[in-house]
Amino acid sequence: MQIPEGKKIYFASDNHLGAPSREASLPREKKFVAWLDEIKTDAAVIFLLGDLFDFWMEYKKVIPKGFTRTLGKLAELSDSGIPIHYFVGNHDLWMNGYFEEELNIPVYLEPKEFIINNKAFFIGHGDGLGPGDKGFKRMKKIFTNPFCKWLFRWLHPDIGVRIAQYLSVKNKLISGKEDITFLGEDKEWLVQYCKRKLQDKHRDYFVFGHRHLPLEIALNDTSKYINLGDWISYFTYGVFDGTNFELKTYKK
User: In angstroms, rounded to a whole number, what is the distance separating the alpha carbons of residues 229 and 16?
Assistant: First the structure.
């Protein structure tokens, strides 16, 4: 992937639209849409690294109500020829073709490597990676189990979505103090994960979300771990201009 002259690649993650309520998240959604509208002038590619919604569940004929501004803007950008890549997060695990079919946006369930201007990027949401967090890893296996998803789809959407939204808002990723505190490199499990991956293959940038804390950490002289933060407290995003990667804050 080569970035045309004058263009940039943008990264964002963890909007959690709909939390703690649709009304409360509406100003954040409008701010995110304004950012998308602003970057469309020089965006070569946009990477969204998951948890765009606080809950997303696709039945065969039903998707969650709301988020029209966001979905409409993504459709506009995609239709205009700007490639958008989406990585599923732990709050929007149950995607099932809607983004691909309606928005022409590829969806990835696992981290993926991209070569951009001869720089190696390893990109993903970040959940369930690295050591520890065994409880979440067990929970994720249940939520992604085909039989469990089949059972859930038998619930009427009004019931299923309400249950899922309640559980999602109660999730520690929205309110937990540990998610906005830097733990130190030795205890940051995504840092440990990246360092292990470097033993197998060089990557220039590891870019993740999930952590809800903007972070830039040098892994060695040529590799860096980036966490994009969120659009709840920080409104941070990543920009790669073909040479340098930078974390920025959207302040409008």
Answer: 12
| Average pLDDT score over the chain | 87
Neighbours of 74 (CB within 10 A): 24
Work out whether strand 119-123 and strand 112-116 pair parallel, antiparallel, or are unpaired: antiparallel
Using alpha carbons, select from 129, 128, 89, 123 the residue that is nearest to residue 109. Answer: 89
Three-state SS for 218?
strand
Residue 239 has a CB neighbour count (10 Å cut-off) of 16
The pLDDT assigned to 136 comes to: 62
What's the whole-number mean pLDDT along residues 61-77? 92
Considering the four listed CATH numbers 3.60.21.10, 1.10.357.140, 3.30.70.920, 3.30.70.980, the one that applies to the domain covering 8-249 is 3.60.21.10
The separation between CA 243 and the C-alpha centre of its own chain, rounded to angstroms, equals 23
Give dist(CA 131, CA 167) in Å, integer. 25
Q: Which residue has the tokens 């990835």?
A: 108
Kindly report the length of the chain.
Answer: 252
Quick one: which of 131, 143, 127 has its CA closest to 94? 143
Q: Where are the alpha helices (DSSP H) in the chain?
A: 22-39, 68-79, 98, 134-143, 146-152, 157-169, 172-175, 189-200
pLDDT tens digits along 131-185: 666 656 666 666 667 776 677 777 777 776 777 666 666 654 444 445 667 777 7
Joined together, the tokens standing for residue 71 give 């979905």
Q: What is the DSSP track for 48-75? A: E-S-SBS--B--SS---S--HHHHHHHH
